[in-house]
């Protein structure tokens, strides 16, 4: 049972996204897409992606942990019954990264992105079966299909190119399932009735242990070069992405239907492509415009009123 102080932290759940929530999701997706280009800049300076992910979790755990300890003096800030689902969410988050980085090494980047974005379907189907008030309607299904078609359009050039493997593709599907399962676990458990900061700390703390071990197992060097680019990149990832944007995500998850929020995640790889064009000089193709139309239309269909 949630305490009185906890209830004051968390407004009553809502059945439909309002303009503020939609705008916040767009900002979050833009932030996550920008991270893709920022990570590539740091890779060019010698910081392996998995090393960056591990250090990001460690750094953000320290920041969020200090904040939670400070707020922990408030009675009821951390309700009982959240430890097991919290650890479970953290393990699923770490499993997602383990499957993702192994899968990416065995398939092409385009195929990896396409198969990873099976995740919103996992959330939508799981929510339909498990979560009251998240039943899928015809428009929601069509919207998800439209948005996924947009991702395929954006990365179609690499879909049938050489370099992929069935094992790599299956691992990326596994990463998508772990990603979706994390969202469903948070939404269906006592974590949905606790402060988003606590949920975030659970996920970060478990991943702060698991990801460095995973990085070392993959032969990644945690002693990354401290160039200006790498330091700025890690600062962005730790403070903006892992601490603030993930907190924003958990705030939204605690208040709105997971399936409607997850539809916005299709924007993330498109923002990543746009950021790569702006920062790294990559070329945008006409397929990108088609992808934006399909994804935007799909998000509207998933969240349309009525």
Automatic annotation (TrEMBL):
Keywords: Membrane, Transmembrane, Transmembrane helix. It comes from the Bacteria. It is found in: Membrane. Its main location: membrane. Residues 23-153, 167-303 form the EamA domain. Pfam families: EamA (PF00892). InterPro entries: AA-Vitamin_Transporters, EamA_dom, EmrE-like. It is a multi-pass membrane protein. The chain crosses the membrane at residues 21-41, 53-71, 83-103, 109-129, 141-160, 166-186, 198-217, 223-249, 261-280, 286-303. SUPFAM superfamilies: Multidrug resistance efflux transporter EmrE. Belongs to the EamA transporter family. This is DMT family transporter. It comes from Tistrella arctica. The lineage of its organism: Bacteria, Pseudomonadati, Pseudomonadota, Alphaproteobacteria, Geminicoccales.
């Amino acid at each position: 049972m949630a305490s009185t102080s906890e209830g004051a932290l968390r407004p009553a759940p809502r059945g439909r996204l309002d303009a503020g929530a939609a705008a916040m999701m767009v900002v979050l997706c833009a932030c996550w897409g920008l991270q893709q280009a920022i990570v590539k800049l740091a890779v060019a300076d010698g910081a392996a992606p998995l090393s960056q992910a591990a250090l990001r979790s460690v750094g953000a755990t320290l920041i969020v942990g200090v904040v939670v300890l400070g707020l922990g003096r408030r009675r009821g800030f951390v309700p009982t019954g959240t430890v097991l689902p919290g650890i479970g969410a953290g393990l699923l988050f770490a499993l997602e990264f383990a499957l993702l980085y192994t899968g990416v090494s065995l398939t092409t980047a385009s195929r990896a992105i396409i198969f990873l974005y099976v995740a919103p379907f996992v959330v939508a189907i799981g929510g339909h079966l498990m979560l009251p008030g998240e039943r899928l309607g015809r428009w929601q299904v069509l919207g998800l299909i439209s948005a996924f078609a947009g991702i395929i359009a954006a990365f179609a050039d690499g879909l049938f190119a050489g370099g992929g493997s069935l094992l790599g593709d299956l691992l990326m599907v596994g990463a998508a399932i772990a990603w979706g399962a994390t969202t469903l676990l948070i939404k269906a458990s006592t974590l949905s009735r606790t402060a988003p900061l606590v949920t975030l700390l659970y996920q970060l703390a478990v991943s702060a242990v698991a990801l460095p071990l995973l990085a070392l197992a993959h032969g990644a060097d945690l002693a990354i070069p401290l160039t200006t680019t790498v330091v700025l990149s890690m600062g962005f990832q730790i403070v903006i992405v892992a601490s603030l944007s993930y907190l924003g995500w958990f705030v939204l998850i605690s208040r709105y239907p997971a399936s409607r929020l997850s539809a916005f995640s299709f924007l993330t790889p498109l923002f990543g492509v746009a950021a790569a064009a702006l920062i790294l000089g990559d070329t945008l193709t006409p397929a990108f415009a088609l992808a934006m139309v399909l994804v935007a239309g799909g998000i509207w269909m998933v969240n349309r009123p009525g």
